[in-house]
Amino acid sequence: MKCQRKKTIKDKHKNIKTIGLFIFKIKFTLYNLLTITPATATTAEEPIISIVYTQENASQWAGIENRLQAIGVKYCVISLDSVKSAADWGDRPVLFLPNVESVSPAQAIALEEWMRNGGRLIASGPVGGSSAPGVRQLLQSLLGGYWGFSLDSPQKLQPLSEITRNLNSPDELLGTVRGGVMIPNTVASQTAAVWDAQDKLPAVLTTERSTLLGWRWGVDAASGIQTDTAWLKAALKRHLRKFSIYMNRVPGGSQNCSTSVVATTPPTSRTPPTPPPQITATAPQPRPLPIPNITFPHSDEAIDQLEQRVRLDVEPKSNAPISRNEAIALQQQLENLIGRVESAHLAAAIHNGNSQVSKAQQTQFASIKSGAPVQSTEQVLTQAREVAKNLPQLIAQKQYAQARSNWVMAKNSLWQQFPVDQKLAQPEIRAIWLDRGTIVRAGSEKGLAAIFDRLAQAGFNTVFFETVNSSYTIYPSQVAPQQNPLTRGWDPLASAVKLAHQRGMELHAWVWVFAAGNQRHNQILKLAPNYPGPVLAAHPDWAGYDNRGQMIPPGQSKPFFDPANPEVRQYLLQLYEEIVTRYQVDGIQLDYIRYPFQDPSAGRTYGYGKAARAKFQQLTGVDPVNISPSQRELWQKWTEFRTQQVNSFVAQASEHLRAKRPNLILSVAVFPLPEQERIQKIQQHWEVWARQGDIDIVIPMTYAQDTLRFERLAQPWIASSKLGSTLLVPGIRLLSLPTIGAFDQIQLVRDLPISGYALFAAENFNNELHTVFSRTQGREQGRQKEPIPSRQPFAAAASRYHALLREWKFVSQNDELKLSAIAAADFNTQAEVLQSALNQLAAEPSAGKLVAAKASLARFQFQFRVWMRSQSVANPYQVKAWENRLVAIERLLRYGKRTAGF
What we know:
The structure is a single chain. The protein has 902 residues and is of the alpha/beta class. The protein has four domains: 259 residues, Class I glutamine amidotransferase (GATase) domain (Rossmann fold, 3-Layer(aba) Sandwich); 92 residues, no CATH class; 363 residues, Glycosidases (TIM Barrel, Alpha-Beta Barrel), CATH 3.20.20; 105 residues. It is built from 28 helices and 22 strands. The longest helix is centred in the middle third of the chain and has 29 residues. It is globular and about 75 Å long. It starts with 15 loop residues before the first helix and ends with a helix.
């Protein structure tokens, strides 16, 4: 096959007859591709693709339209400025973003929702490259990768078989193009074309619902018209072949279409049009049950604002200087990722029981993850170690761009090597928040059963079921004024308890505590924006206020109860008592157990409810509305007063509910801000609740877009000595997080001294995640059910230690454990003694057996550091991971002592 370089836009006026035949062939092919019969040919008049117009691609619009007209398919033009919601992306099945680099957070979230409704996305160029970090990450997740760096010179495209099947003439996909290297970042990413150079770097990426072209489509200086049209045709066929008819609208989309064009003549040069203002069409008839498919955010302040997310970007082609501290951090990150990959493989190996089988499976799986040449895990690890080793030298030579490029490529290669097709999980808390939106969309017990089947298959053992939200209960309540209008007619909580228990899962009722309403929920229910929720509407004196007298603080969307109001507290306790006595829930999770976010230094404070003001004035003689942060002593008393209202309610709820259900597990979802900053901003002092034993599990919402940031958020609490015997379970947010990124964070959790993780939320638990989780932690037929650490801490401790023993034996059998014969004998003896003590405690718990197990563990931990001195030199990460897992066992014993009452 030869590249057809001469067929570019410069000679498009030559040989009109040939072009006419070419267009006829394309149109004929498209008709056959899309299974259009003469009887349904009129459907072809409907646009099947929307093209996004923005000021960024306005100068390129003549070339873009020339190519679109050459294809001969009708299209709509959507102005990016008109997009505010998912509906604004239109109801065509395919959306094309040609060279769009600036996308707002709201537009990115809307795009994700539009795709979740069934839309398919084609994009070209460095998509979102000029957007906020959180937006870039979300777009990367939707597209399965991103533009890594530009090529220095034009290169030939080399299509792979996946995409060449989509055209009758694969030769049309060849061409010499000036573009960039695409970096895949999900396990579902497929490389559809590579640059025909020595390294065969990715040029086109695909996922089930997207295609990303690695050049600026429609720009003559980047690519010719024939290459561009061939690739767009291939992408269109790829995304439309699953449609049974030519046109299948995306549910919920509007008829947004600034212009609608179909070309039947050869392309000619045109002035770039400015799409006219959007005209609101006649409102369609409402559906019988209008349940919008939207994202229900967990927190306005820290999570809902994409532009506020923190991500540690490494731009491959940036030649900005790298400081010494940055160099150390980059090197350490890479070495830790190498350690996590090795640790995951070791865990997978002991589940397989045979190192050779394990390695064969790993290589086989690696070969299908991308179109790049297959490399073994050992090859990738060796190369990554070399990159980490050479980073300081490159930086010393001021080769900053090369250092960054090497780092990014090594990271992505390592991510591809995680054994995501093998069982490797130890007994742990695997929790997921089942959000209100997903419950509403389930619509019935049958719909909910499908969700629980899916979660059970993926290995989850704990579900936080959203039960009270914005003062609405998900179930028909005799205490709360209203059930959520979107769940009336059935009892989702009763169904959830039954379905979870049938599948061996725990069901914890997730309740909003002091957040009393939600403007977003008002919009869904078509209520007034400032409606405070059904409880505050009936009891306005129960509300809290800011220092300006507003119930909802500026920039936020939720009114809050006054925690100092005794009637509020009594109402909430009665509500939670109803839940734990009417339903056999296994636990209660307290969310929004705080005040709204404040900034005292900027004069934005909260907590001035009627009851709070009266109580504080009674205690101090001063109305808190009359004091300011500059009055340090009084302000500190006011802060302590509000903090104590939250602390005392947690203690009161714990005592009250456990009197009703002694085996109830109480958990809290909290912010991972530094302790004193958190007290000043939201009066949430959860270390006190943990230390006093008021709660069983603390879940810091350590939501981050990269593993390093996640670790930095979680580490202070992992190392904290202020949590008493309470278990720590970090939260991981799935929205905009690539699947392999989520897996990487979970692998880090498994190598730290903690007993599990919680995922937010079920709404974002997609098919790709389900596949990976089912393979790595899903239930195995015929195997005994694993203990849940929060419910069976002693059994979980014994089981987790047994997994450690198997790893040590596996490493020893492969001659990789650096111990002398005498040390090895001593190690094995002490390891067996500890196993026996833990097994006895798990079989028949008693105070005496717990003392014996703790003593044996303490001795073993002390000796372990001595035994592993040489091993630490060879593999420091793995030794530290083993030490961490011993600490996790120690913490399970401490937690078990409290819950067992020893």
